[in-house]
Amino acid sequence: MEQWKRILPEIARMAIADAFGARNLSSETLSRLVAEYPELAAKRAVFVTLKKNGALRGCIGSILPTRPLIEDVMENARAAAFRDTRFPPLQPEELEEVNI
Fold first, then answer.
1. Which of 53, 56, 70, 76 could form a cystine bridge with 48, CB 3.0-4.6 A?
2. Domain span including residue 30
């Protein structure tokens, strides 16, 4: 369980950074992560919450497990960062300030 508190937020952060052009999540990286943590391939549903200075900055999630965990984390992280209608889209300079 402790490993997921580290790995899932890292995947979420990389997915958001990739949307800004970082290119952290290549197909090779994704394959390596799934090989190392096979649970990432299981269908799961997650919510990704972003907080900045302790305040909500975005939160989007899935309630039904329809895709692999790694995909759900990545998609919901990008949605929380850019498509939560309660907030303007996250800006690149904010990413380091955001807790996931």
1. 76
2. 2-99
Distance CA 97, CA 35 (A): 30
How many domains in the chain? 1
* CATH code at position 44: 3.30.700.20
State the Cα–Cα distance between residues 59 and 64, nearest whole angstrom: 16
* Residues with pLDDT less than 70, the chain: 1
Give, for 12, the enclosing helix (H) or strand (E).
helix 2-19
Look at the block and give the residue holding tokens 């998609």. Answer: 75
Q: Please give the biggest Cα pair distance in the chain.
A: 37
The full DSSP string for 55-96 is EEEEEEE-SS--EEHHHHHHHHHHHHHHT-TTSPPPPGGGGG
